[in-house]
Design goal:
Length: 378
């Protein structure tokens, strides 16, 4: 289903956790491999404004291979996989330095995070990456994320940073993803080849008709609008709105805040509700935690599960696995992602949070199940 008019007020103004994806064509000169520093500075000015307004910002960037191939003398020919990995290893350092310099003008700390597809599929790596990004955002840093091309293989690579950005948005429960592109949004057909292609300002549901507007990907790869719609599906399922917006002009985020031309993909529910729905319906439980009456009351009022409220643990599960939450009578009252393995919970159950480090020998989270990782039955 599509709307004839865009949102009257830009969704950017209410974004709390914002992910921005930047493609190589916007950031790197195709012929020289040099970073477009003036464009990057203008973008980082926009990021700084969002940061100053209290928004949490993550950047997903392409360009490491494009920047790194020149210094290694690999221009002018198609790169093999191992050559791409070598170019990425060089380019990632140069890209990180460019972002660091640009955001340092605003006294904003930058952190580089490299991610592979496996990091988002493996439960414990997923949690580790999520916790790292959450911590960086709480410390008011701007994480700059790229696919870890220097170690990824052809079988596990994302292959495009549109879907990487969507997976990151899903991972950290972002409410807004902006894909900066060389096109200003979704059309009924390719506007470069079809003169009467109609612009679509808003999409509320990705139907087969919407998917057909992107064309078809080859067997050897995907790109363009195809991967953008794949990213939109991931985002909408996660309760995250997404924009396809033009990025070539300076200050693209400011233009978007001012209701500039773009296509918005708007989900029916927010990220928190979507995440709880995913926990409730998609994950197999590997154990159970029995809680006392005080914990039961606290959980029903929206609190996290602390070790003091746990009276028993069953099952063989690891950190990040899904577990049931039960009362002493055996009633299943909820389901959540455990921040600790079963053996560790057996050690800390019934204890105050401040005793956890002493008992376990390491300092972890104070909650056994955080409220954002917990679905409670009504």
């Amino acid at each position: 289903m599509t709307a004839l008019q865009p949102p009257t007020k830009s969704p950017m103004t209410s974004a709390r956790r914002l992910v921005i994806k930047i493609g190589s064509a916007l950031l790197v000169d195709d012929e020289t491999g040099a970073v477009h520093h003036s464009w990057l500075d203008a973008l980082c000015d926009d990021v700084a404004e969002a940061h100053a307004a209290g928004q949490e910002v993550i950047i997903v960037t392409s360009g490491a291979i494009a920047v790194g191939r020149g210094p290694l003398g690999m221009k002018g020919h198609k790169l093999r996989l191992e050559e791409k990995q070598a170019a990425a290893a060089t380019g990632q350092m140069r890209l990180a330095h460019a972002y660091q310099e640009s955001l340092a003008r605003h006294k904003i700390a930058v952190a580089q995070v490299l991610i592979t597809l496996d990091d988002t599929e493996n439960r414990r790596r997923y949690l580790n990456a999520r916790n790292t990004l959450d911590t960086l955002l709480k410390l008011r840093a701007v994480p700059v994320i790229n696919e870890n091309d220097s170690v990824a293989t052809a079988e596990i690579r994302f292959g495009d940073n549109d879907r990487l950005a969507a997976r990151v948005s899903q991972m950290i429960s972002a409410d807004t993803l902006v894909l900066l592109s060389d096109i200003d949004g979704l059309y009924t057909a390719d506007p470069r080849t079809v003169s009467n292609a109609e612009f679509i300002p808003q999409v509320d549901e990705i139907t087969p008709k919407i998917e057909s507007m992107a064309g078809f990907a080859s067997d050897h790869g995907s790109g363009g609008m195809v991967t953008k719609l794949m990213a939109a599906k991931i985002c909408m399922d996660a309760g995250c709105r997404m924009a396809i917006a033009p990025g070539k002009l300076n200050h693209p985020l400011t233009q978007l805040v001012n209701s500039g031309r773009c296509t918005w993909f708007l989900p029916a529910a927010g990220p928190r509700a979507a995440r709880k729905r995913w926990i409730a319906g998609s994950l197999q439980t590997l154990g159970a935690l029995v809680v006392d009456n005080g914990a039961f009351i606290a959980l029903n009022s929206g609190k996290s599960l602390l070790p003091a409220g746990i009276v028993d643990v069953s099952g063989d599960f690891e950190r990040g696995d899904a577990v049931e939450v039960r009362t002493k009578d055996g009633e299943v009252i909820g389901k959540g992602l455990s921040a600790y393995a079963a053996a560790d919970i057996s050690t800390i159950k019934g204890q105050k949070s401040e005793k956890m480090e002493e008992l376990l020998g390491f300092r972890g989270r104070s909650e056994v199940i955080h409220r954002d990782d917990l679905f409670m039955r009504s």
